[in-house]
Amino acid sequence: MKELIDVTEVLVASVDPVKTALTVLALLVMRVAIRQVERHLDHCRQRELVQDFVALRGAQRRDLIRLLSGGM
Q1: Strand, helix or coil for residue 15
Q2: Sign (positive/negative) of CA torsion 58, 59, 60, 66?
C-alpha cells in the first residue's frame, strides 16, 4: 500500500486529478488481479499435492504420513 501512496503523491504533483484517479484505479485493479492469480496458483499447487498423495499406495502413503506427522 505504501508504494501506491508514493505513486499517488508523485502523480498528484505532476498530473491533473482525473489522470491521477484513473492511474490509481488502474494500479488497484492490477493489484487485485495479481492477488487473484496468486490465490489460483496456490489452489493449483494444493490440488496437485493432494493428487500426488492420493496416487501413493500402501507403504509409500503410510511412510509419508509418518514423515509428515513427525513419527518414526
Answers
A1: coil
A2: positive
DSSP secondary structure string for all residues of the chain: -HHHHHHHHHHHHHS-HHHHHHHHHHHHHHHHHHHHHHHHHHHHHHHHHHHHHHH--HHHHHHHHHHHHT--
CA quadruple 32, 37, 2, 27: dihedral, nearest 10 = -50
pTM of the predicted model, to two decimals? 0.60
**Grid cell 498528484 — which residue?**
12
CA dist 32 and 27 (Å) reads 9
Per-residue pLDDT of the chain (72 residues), as tens digits, is 677 677 767 766 766 778 777 888 888 899 999 999 999 999 999 999 999 999 999 999 999 999 989 865
